[in-house]
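[Discussion] Sanity-checking designs against the backbone

I'm trying to build intuition for which residues belong where. Below is a structure token string of 256 positions. I'd appreciate it if someone posts a full sequence so I can compare it with mine line by line.
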């Protein structure tokens, strides 16, 4: 098929969504005898979808997720104590519009980070601004930001995002300066934005992580005020996978 006469005009206007599907849509219009308005509507839909996907990809990169973890890939059968209805409710992201928090606790490997990241992706699908960090990395970034003069800018990003995911709270010791920074994040976001926080520590252990009892009390009072607390129990996903692989290895005749 010869190039459609609209092609160079669409390229000049940088309507690449239309460019990519122009020939296909033109053929469809001929086959189904679409009116010019119907043909144009299809092209506009293609451009809107391309821009939506491009924006979503950009927001995913900005969020800083370490890996792709979607709710569709979560193994609920491996976490029998987890309330599936609650997870699906949180996936609607209505808690974000109410500026509520979700605190997810449990031992290593039960899917806490997977859930937190999946909720972040669901928020981005709804055009919400998301930032995701391990607590240790975030506090390290803030420490470095003081040295290069970018601290205020980073804190502004943290306070203005619709959702901040804080992963692995309590996994590593927190310095006195780190505790103050964490308090500042919680304080700035209190009743203004949501936090999804994961921890392998019980909530009863959280105060000691701050070192300063007054700072801990003030931070945790705000963090837990408008929050759902979910405790996940069970075996580590990674250890379950290892046992399955070991069993498969033993059953394989070639390994006998």
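Best answer:
Here's mine. Compare freely.
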């Amino acid at each position: 098929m010869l190039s459609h006469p609209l092609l160079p005009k669409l390229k000049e206007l940088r309507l690449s969504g239309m460019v990519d599907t122009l020939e296909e849509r033109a053929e469809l219009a001929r086959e189904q005898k679409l009116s010019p308005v119907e043909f144009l509507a299809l092209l506009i839909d293609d451009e809107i979808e391309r821009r939506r996907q491009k924006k979503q990809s950009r927001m995913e990169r900005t969020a800083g997720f370490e890996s792709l973890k979607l709710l569709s890939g979560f193994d609920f059968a491996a976490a029998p104590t987890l309330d599936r209805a609650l997870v699906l409710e949180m996936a609607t992201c209505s808690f974000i519009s109410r500026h509520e928090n979700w605190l997810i606790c449990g031992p290593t490997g039960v899917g806490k980070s997977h859930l937190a990241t999946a909720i972040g992706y669901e928020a981005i699908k709804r055009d919400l601004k998301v930032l995701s960090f391990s607590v240790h990395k975030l506090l390290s970034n803030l420490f470095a930001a003081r040295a290069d003069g970018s601290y205020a800018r980073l804190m502004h990003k943290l306070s203005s995002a619709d959702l901040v995911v804080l992963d692995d709270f309590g996994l590593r010791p927190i310095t006195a300066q780190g505790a103050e920074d964490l308090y500042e994040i919680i304080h700035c976001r209190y009743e203004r934005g949501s936090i999804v926080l994961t921890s392998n520590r019980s909530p009863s252990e959280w105060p000691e992580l701050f070192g300063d009892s007054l700072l801990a009390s003030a931070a945790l009072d705000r963090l837990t005020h408008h929050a759902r607390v979910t405790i996940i129990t069970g075996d580590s996903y990674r250890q379950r996978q290892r046992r399955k692989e070991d069993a498969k290895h033993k059953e394989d005749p070639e390994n006998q």
